[in-house]
Write a structure and sequence with these properties.
- This is histidine kinase.
- InterPro entries: HATPase_C_sf, Put_sensor_dom, Sensor_HK_TwoCompSys, Sig_transdc_His_kin_sub3_dim/P.
- The chain is an alpha+beta fold and 395 residues long.
- It folds into three domains: 3-177, no CATH class; 199-267; 270-392, Histidine kinase-like ATPase, C-terminal domain (Heat Shock Protein 90).
- It has helices spanning 3-40, 47-73, 94-136, 144-177, 181-234, 239-267, 270-287, 304-325, 360-369; strands spanning 292-296, 330-335, 340-347, 374-378, 385-392.
- Strands 1-2-3-5-4 form a five-stranded mixed sheet, covered by helices on one side.
- The longest helix is centred in the middle third of the chain and has 54 residues, at 181-234.
- The chain is elongated.
Amino acid sequence: MDWEERIRTARAAGLRGLGLALRALVVGLPLFVATVVSIALVPAGIGVLLAPRALAALRRFADEQRERGQAWSGVRVDRPYRGPARGLRPLLDPATWRDLLWLVVNLPVAVATGLVPVALTAWTVFGVVIVPIVITSGAEGEFWPVAVGIGVLAAALLVIVPPLVLELHARFSAALLSPPRRALEARVDRLEETRADAVDAGAAELRRIEKDLHDGAQARIAALGMTIGLAEQLVRTDPARAEALLAEARDTSGQALADLRRLVRGIHPPVLAERGLVEAVRALAVVLPVPTTVFADDDVRGAPPIEAALYFAVAEALANVAKHSRAARAWVTLRAPSGLLVVEVGDDGTGGAQVPPAGGLAGVRRRLGAFDGRLAVTSPPGGPTVLSMEVPCGS
């Protein structure tokens, strides 16, 4: 890195540090006061309305610092939250209280981060610019050489220190805004478990496809070849019989094609690839015997593997509604809060739904777990039954 680039980097770091200081004073301090006051007012009732907004703003402020630390200093900070910031749920999340602690401790740290480049700049201007002008004007003073030396030293430090100070601020923030070690260990354990489940599910899916091909399309295509061969032998001696065999072969080819189409739909439905998750779920709801309403946000989109996992999860849930719930109506809700795809499938049936280890819902849980997703089932006796599925999908 040449000196010109070093100077540009130092200047950018100094301006960013100054911006962090101003942001901590102008935004961070009022946000801390508003959050603490709204939490304190929760028992009085008014805090129930104020706290969710303050907590959501606190999380956004902390997320912005995580992004800045990554972009400016290369310090990665993972999000430690247990779920989306809805209602008063963040109060039960330890990460919220660490965010609040960071917010108040960050105030002096950010101010110091912004003042260091300002102080170095001031000493540089005083020692390298002002003092020589004073000396050339004939003013006497024993401390002028010392001031010039300090100015030169400050100028050298001004090229080196601001990026280091900015990185120190990013590492300080990471210490409070990162998941604790025990949470990271639990996440590693969960990832190992979901990876094993994904491998098992992939192997089971391959076996299912192989079985469907062997018992369906492959058997029909083999029969088709035999029928055409027999017709070929009879075409001269018994044309009528050969014609009948060819008609039978045409029917068999149609059945084999239908088997292949069903197999493809079981791997990745065309409607899902062409029209997205919402329209694919609406197509499922249309053919369900139980009247089903689909509610969806406009921006419900995700990566194709995630959409496929949620599609088959909804298909399994709706199949259970039709088979076991005795419901008069059902509904599906698809939402896309920050960084998540959330799908809820509910019905007004008899309730009592469970997740047996070898059942379809257990397979849904494993399928979602491969994407770090979660499945929650609420089904008291007498209903209603609600299956909630959450899958991280990025911004």
